[in-house]
């Protein structure tokens, strides 16, 4: 199953400057593993030491925030698009 991953500029140093990748996984957690196989070192930027998505990154599956779905257990299907978006804060 092919899933398109949109990678922010800050993480493209792990993807050979590619903004879009095609990976596999039946859920977001497996997608992280697939990304790590293709781009060594990226998973530690996406997940904390417990394997949970880092708080300062937002992950969207087809424009739906995974925090309001099933988190890293959110299922994926062929053709889905996962966006990685750095959190922005300010005042």
UniProtKB/TrEMBL annotation:
SUPFAM superfamilies: MoaD/ThiS. This is MoaD/ThiS family protein. It comes from Anabaenopsis elenkinii CCIBt3563.
């Amino acid at each position: 199953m092919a899933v398109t991953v949109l990678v922010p500029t800050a993480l493209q140093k792990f993807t050979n400057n590619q903004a879009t990748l095609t990976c596999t996984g039946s859920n977001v957690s497996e997608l992280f593993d697939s990304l790590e196989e293709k781009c060594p070192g990226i998973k530690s930027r996406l997940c904390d030491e417990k394997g949970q998505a880092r708080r300062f990154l937002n992950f969207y599956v087809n424009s739906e925030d995974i925090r309001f779905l099933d988190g890293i257990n959110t299922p994926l299907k062929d053709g889905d698009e996962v966006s990685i978006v750095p959190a922005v804060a300010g005042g």
